[in-house]
């Protein structure tokens, strides 16, 4: 049985993207630290990679990064951090560091008595609002499949006509009526299931029982999904209250409590309260729906602006979900226009990232370009979360840009009265849309606007982040890949193996000063046949150092010379016997020298590409460590190849 240093659980309400993005982020963070991790995912398909009791017992700590209910009691006695799934995606390094080295991370006890202080307790169990959100999203995650299934089946029934399920209509069709009936049953379960699983997250099995009954009352009395939410929290906390009231009963009566006392009293209490608050809840629900419907007619631009901003603000988070839940609630009442704007606003951001990498490929890393292309597929299927990494890269600029595109797509959808009767699926449900080609056009226009703006911002950012390096032509910018980019991709500009071989590498070079080293390199270049006049090369080395030092940092210098006596481009590498003084960025001596020889006829383009490739390699600490630890010429040569 494998032992894992850290175990983690991830989960998001929809269980589609956030869950697995947080999983990958945590696994990458653990890999960088050289520790083992196992991540249990709570996705739409259920729990995958579930922990065994042995794995839990042997782990040093537990990270829960989830916005849905995860069985926490099994981690009794373990150091535990409980945060949102967004933190798992955006702050994986901090979470791994904290669970490994922060002695203040509290120990979780299922009895509710933690060894942590009150301030630490908040970190352990999550903030009050995070807990409320987790409870709510547990209901949403169980409700969504029902809404999608019911909405799509109901929408398909309209293929035979809008009144095809009505036996009194001339459009009546038996198959359409069956689909409409089945779809209606699924949609009608929306409120009871939402209510039940909110209550289940709070009050476990007892909460589930009370939640179903309370949810049925909420649905029957017309309170809509707002009533389902209120009823869920009501039923859950009634279950908690009963547990505390009957805590003193003998353990031998536990069976009686769970089967008789809790269900009977709980249903009575929560059901009665829900019955009497249904009247004002129904009025609130009716008023809200009427207001939204009136906005579709009187203020479609304002409505589209609000929906666009909400959907793009947190890419599947609580604000996005609020808009989506409203859309599904209106679908259940036969309003198919509101969902058109919501879906358009959710589809536009990932498509925008794809257009952005097409508009300005050089501004993005190869990994980002691949993600952008994949987002064409994700966006087309209504999965907004693919845009999150792009939003996180520069949130203050990129998120408002996503909002602009989403708002444009939503506004145009509302203005042209497009209806989308299915709550999910993206372009898969185009046959159900009343104006499919127009709807796609509006979404693409919104995505193109955001994509163009994203590419401009990314282009400026990449120029700002470019590294300044010394060259024979003076200081020039050399674009650098982020540190997360694999080292082997850093040589994409030009193949360094073209200008280096084993003979070009010298080990244990014994020199006492920078000038001695430059003289050694000049003689070395003539010995290898790259230059015909070592004195001329030496003078060019010195002249270059007078312009500005080629000392870098971390004990590395990159001297170079360009002269008519140099016959072909070459890279020379020298590892010194002892460090020598050299003017460097970090004021530390140099013991590794990477030198370039440049023919006089070279206009600088080839040399800059080789220098760019080397500079990118030196951006990675793991490469420098490997270079420093290399003992043979073959090891060094393989690193640069």
From TrEMBL:
Pfam families: PTS_EIIA_2 (PF00359), PTS_EIIC (PF02378), PTS_IIB (PF02302). Residues 498-641 form the PTS EIIA type-2 domain. The keyword Flavoprotein does not apply. InterPro entries: Bacterial_PTS_Sugar_Transport (IPR050864), PTrfase/Anion_transptr (IPR016152), PTS_EIIA_type-2_dom (IPR002178), PTS_EIIB-like_sf (IPR036095), PTS_EIIB_2 (IPR013011), PTS_EIIB_2/3 (IPR003501), PTS_EIIC (IPR003352), PTS_EIIC_2 (IPR013014). The chain crosses the membrane at residues 140-162, 174-197, 209-240, 260-279, 300-316, 336-359, 396-416, 436-458. Its main location: membrane. Residues 132-467 form the PTS EIIC type-2 domain. GO terms for molecular function: carbohydrate:proton symporter activity; protein-N(PI)-phosphohistidine-fructose phosphotransferase system transporter activity; protein-phosphocysteine-sugar phosphotransferase activity. It is found in: Cell inner membrane. The keyword rRNA processing does not apply. Coiled coil: none annotated. One of its GO terms (biological process) is phosphoenolpyruvate-dependent sugar phosphotransferase system. It is a multi-pass membrane protein. Keywords: Cell membrane, Membrane, Phosphoprotein, Phosphotransferase system, Sugar transport, Transferase, Transmembrane, Transmembrane helix, Transport. GO terms for cellular component: plasma membrane. Residues 6-101 form the PTS EIIB type-2 domain. It comes from the Bacteria. NCBIfam families: FRU, fruA, PTS_IIC_fructo. This is PTS fructose transporter subunit IIABC. It comes from Companilactobacillus heilongjiangensis.
């Amino acid at each position: 049985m494998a032992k894992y240093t850290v175990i983690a659980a991830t989960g998001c309400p929809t269980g589609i993207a956030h869950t697995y993005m947080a999983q990958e982020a945590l696994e990458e963070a653990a890999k960088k630290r050289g520790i083992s991790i196992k991540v249990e995912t709570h996705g739409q398909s259920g729990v995958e990679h579930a922990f065994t009791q042995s794995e839990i017992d042997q782990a040093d700590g537990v990270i829960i990064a989830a916005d849905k209910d995860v069985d926490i009691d099994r981690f009794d006695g373990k150091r535990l951090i409980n945060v949102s799934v967004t933190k798992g995606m955006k702050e994986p390094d901090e979470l791994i560091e904290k669970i490994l080295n922060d002695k203040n991370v509290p120990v979780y006890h299922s009895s509710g008595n933690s060894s942590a202080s009150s301030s630490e307790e908040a970190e352990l169990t999550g903030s009050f609002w995070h807990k409320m959100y987790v409870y709510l999203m547990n209901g949403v995650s169980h409700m969504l499949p029902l809404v999608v299934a019911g909405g799509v089946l109901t929408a398909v029934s309209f293929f035979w006509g809008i009144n095809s399920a009505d036996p009194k209509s001339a459009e009546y069709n038996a198959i359409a009526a069956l689909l409409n009936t089945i779809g209606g049953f699924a949609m009608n379960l929306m409120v009871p299931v939402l209510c039940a699983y909110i209550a289940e997250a709070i009050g476990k099995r007892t909460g589930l029982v009370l939640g179903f009954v309370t949810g049925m009352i909420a649905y029957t009395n017309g309170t809509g999904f707002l009533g389902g939410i209120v009823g869920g929290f009501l039923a859950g906390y009634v279950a908690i209250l009963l547990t505390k009231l009957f805590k003193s009963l003998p353990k031998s009566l536990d069976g009686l409590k769970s089967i008789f006392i809790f269900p009977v009293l709980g249903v009575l209490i929560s059901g009665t309260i829900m019955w009497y608050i249904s009247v004002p809840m129904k009025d609130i629900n009716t008023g809200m729906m009427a207001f939204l419907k009136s906005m579709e007619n009187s203020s479609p631009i304002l409505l589209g602006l609000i929906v666009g901003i909400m959907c793009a603000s947190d890419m599947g988070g609580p604000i996005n979900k609020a808009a989506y839940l409203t859309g599904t609630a209106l679908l259940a009442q036969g309003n198919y226009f509101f969902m058109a704007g919501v879906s358009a606003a959710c589809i536009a951001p990932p498509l925008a990232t794809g257009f952005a990498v097409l508009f300005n490929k050089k501004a993005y890393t190869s990994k980002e370009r691949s993600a952008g292309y994949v987002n064409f597929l994700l966006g087309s299927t209504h999965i907004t979360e693919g845009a999150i990494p792009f939003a996180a890269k520069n949130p203050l600029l990129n998120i408002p840009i996503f909002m602009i595109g989403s708002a444009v797509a939503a506004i145009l959808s509302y203005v042209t009265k497009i209806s989308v009767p299915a709550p999910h699926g993206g372009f898969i449900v185009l046959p159900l849309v009343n104006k499919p080609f127009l709807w796609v056009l509006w979404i693409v226009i919104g995505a193109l606007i955001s994509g163009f703006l994203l590419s401009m911002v990314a282009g400026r950012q990449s120029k700002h982040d470019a590294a300044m390096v010394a060259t024979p032509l003076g200081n020039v910018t050399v674009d650098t890949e982020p540190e997360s980019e694999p080292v082997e991709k850093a040589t994409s500009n030009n193949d360094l193996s073209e200008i280096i071989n084993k003979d070009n590498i010298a080990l244990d070079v014994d020199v006492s000063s920078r000038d001695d080293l430059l003289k050694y390199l000049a003689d070395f270049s003539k010995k290898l046949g790259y230059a015909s006049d070592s004195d001329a090369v030496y003078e060019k080395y010195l002249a270059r150092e007078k312009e500005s030092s080629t000392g870098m940092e971390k004990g590395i210098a990159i001297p170079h010379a360009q002269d008519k006596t140099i016959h072909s481009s070459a890279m020379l590498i020298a590892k010194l016997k002892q460090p020598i003084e050299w003017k460097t960025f970090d004021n530390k001596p140099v013991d590794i020298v990477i030198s370039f020889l440049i023919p006089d006829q070279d206009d600088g383009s080839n040399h800059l590409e080789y220098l760019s490739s080397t500079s990118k390699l030196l951006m990675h600490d793991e490469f420098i460590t490997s270079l420093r630890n290399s003992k043979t010429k073959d090891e060094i040569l393989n690193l640069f190849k």
